[in-house]
Amino acid sequence: MESVPLMGARVAPDDLTQLCIEAMRLTGLNEEDARLTAEVLVTTDTLGTFTHGTRQLRGLLKNFRSGRLHAAAHEAIVAEGPAWAIVDAHYAMPPAVSYRCMQLAMRKAKASGIGYVGVRHSSHYGAAGFYANLAARGDMFGLSMCNVDPCMTVPGSKGRVLGTNPIAYAAPAGEEKPVYLDVATSAVAATKIYAAKALGQPIPGNWLVDEDGLPTSDYSNFPEKAVQVPMAGHKGYGLAVMVEILTAVLTGAAVMSGVSSWVLDSPNPTDEGHAFIAIDIGQIMPLGEFKSRMDGMIREIKSAPLAKGADRIYLPGEIELERQETALAQGIVLPPDVVASLRGLAEDVGLDAASLFKA
To answer: Which backbone phi and psi does 124 adopt, to 5 degrees?
Structure first.
């Protein structure tokens, strides 16, 4: 297990972006793929979602060196209609492919009111919420989802059945902040368990079940034997199945047990599937009217009576967007496990990153 520093570090988003871009260049990626991927990962860190930000770049670049991803590859549309497309990622850099595929879904939505883009032959794309927010920034309603390797049980089973299959949505507003939600369909994202292992921190007893399907807080044999549980029982299970259908069954990507882990050493390509959906709001109602109605909904929620001990009500995504404002103004305070991962990344590619990490 890599050494984890005791303290985090405050970094400027631009400096962190340049480190990531240079690491990708040294791994053989082209300028656009490096730039888009860095934007996805650094933006995720500014939101405080450190499990899915730049911490993940080291693992992605290892997949290029092992041949599971291909630096010179580029995605291609293999089938399409006016409002939809199926894309073969050809194991190119997943966040860059996903960025362009949400943009493609948005172009389809501009033409037809709604656009769906499904992706096959891909790998880990980072935080689903980034791509949903990409649509919201373009005044569209965005949906993003991905299937992953099975590490989650389902009601009535004690072994791996489905992946944590994340899903995210985002909607623009007027004077209020956009509303967005980004969740795994498991009780917690797998990366949070890996982060706890790296830091030697305990986890709650309702994140995993053991070989007999019983709740456990022992992550020592995760993911080899211990498996995750769906959020809210059958509800998370049902959503995970929907994600599997839209990202894998419909796209031609690997389904369930056919997906390989991008984290564990394996000779097999991951073959995850993604799905991106954009709705062009302005074709359904005037955009200004929609944003005004969004503001009204948000304000009604925020004005609800407070529970004892509570000081405010947050909308989905509001906490993250407030963190982002602070990070952009004052720098990102990276937690220790992210600093350790980025130091390891720099060592892997021969970069000196010491000046970046100042506690």
So the answer is: -65, 125
